[in-house]
Amino acid sequence: MTNKGFRKDFLWGGATAANQFEGAYNEDGKGLTIADISPGGKLRMPLLFSGDFPLEIDREKYIYPNHQGIDFYHRYKEDIALFAEMGFKTFRMSISWARIFPNGDDQEPNEAGLAFYDQVIDELLKYNIEPTITISHYETPLHLVKEYGGWKNKKLIAFFEKYARTILERYGKKVTYWMTFNEINTAIMGSFFTTAMRNATEADNFQALHNQFVASSLATKIAKEINPAIKMGCMSIYATMYAYDSNPGTVMAREEKNRLFNYFCNDLQVRGEYPSYALAYFENKGIEIEWTEEELAIIKAHTVDYLSFSYYMSTTVSIDPKHRDKQIQGNFFGGVKNPFLEVSEWGWEVDPVGLRLALCDLYGRYGVPLYISENGLGAIDTPDENFVINDDYRIDYLKRHMAEMKKAVVLDGVDLIAYTPWGCIDLVSASTGEMSKRYGFIYVDLDDQGNGDMSRHKKKSFDWYKEVIRTNGEEI
Ligand code: BG6
């Protein structure tokens, strides 16, 4: 294949989230967020989904690896220099809401928090790295949960609006690419990270989502008022969904699951309207969402400029009872084991062609530029005594996904603008709170028990990715 596919201004880079790598969880006036009280370890997801954990730090019972993260807060200069050495064109990061408004409902912002992001953004710009900022990545301020009950409360719309206005006013002249809510569609399954609610009903989850759609559109409106050149995006997980067999019942089950998970939030944020299948779903399930004409008009008027999504794996739907014991769990969702796919060490199915299918599907449906804001392989790296890490498995994973991206661009005509592999520097896993689940091109000397000096080391994939970027994807 030739290189004619990737745009000249293609944004190669890497992605992170404040709560998973900044550390300094209580420094310089930062308040606690939902991430700060989410227990680390393999039981994290079951706990978060059951709601059976305290809304406070309990060090007797739990560990909290996010508290120190990888200390980007103090080491950002060194880390950004490494990103620059790889030739990053963009760096996706999030702003921690509670660094800016420690409780979420404060009258005045915390200047120390704002100053920290001034420095990070300026450091990136020094190397001509375009920041891509996620406004909310799994860290609603804890006070908004305790006092207001999380995102089903409409008061959060105004708090978010104020937070978004504050950071857009501060950084909106320097930063072009923004995203509102990370993986917003995980709210459908009731993810605490997204909704900031425990033990919620399905109706609560949809109410929380509605409030976030309004908040997202208000942020888009404000962004354009501040700087019309800003590009605002939405962000969902996309899971390419297969019907296990050609039984029409299976295909229908896949259709129902697919539209709710892969389309619903994008339909709202790109097209600006509740789709008819969702209205029918609400009616049949007796779900009543509190919305006003004014809110619906805001959602309609302020849609996003581009669609971003994370892609790690596909999923397979079956209605055959004999598949009940062949379930496999992945990134917030599960399905039936696909016999054609291998799995990662964490049981996530690896499916590069699924990425091309995702790109074709989303571009065909929405026709807006696409941004792959996360992709990658969580794997155990074993450095030798000199910290040499030959992560060929990671290179192989990324190579195969990039090859499919390229086909989507060259053969399918998809307008793909960016690719930011997840965890470009090792960081704390969102689903398990582990350090040992590593995605990075840069190794961080830190284990699950917190041992290690946090020194940074280039893996083999570091030089490989640098070459990919240098040749704009010609050398994959
Ligand atoms: C996405 C999240 O779901 O997947 C990230 O946006 C997360 O925050 C990433 O870290 C990888 O998942 P995990 O569980 O392996 O860290």
Automatic annotation (TrEMBL):
The organism encoding this protein is: Enterococcus eurekensis
> Which is an annotated GO molecular function term of this record?
hydrolase activity, acting on glycosyl bonds
What's in the keyword line of the UniProt record?
Glycosidase, Hydrolase
Q: Quote the catalytic residue positions.
A: E374
EC no.? 3.2.1.-
Family per record:
Belongs to the glycosyl hydrolase 1 family.
InterPro entries tied to this protein? GH (IPR017853), GH_1_N_CS (IPR033132), Glyco_hydro_1 (IPR001360), Glyco_hydro_1_AS (IPR018120)
- Parts forming coiled coils: none
* Gene3D superfamilies per UniProt: Glycosidases (3.20.20.80)
- Enzyme class (EC, first level): hydrolase
Q: Does this entry carry the keyword Cell wall biogenesis/degradation?
A: no
What is this protein identified as?
Glycoside hydrolase family 1 protein
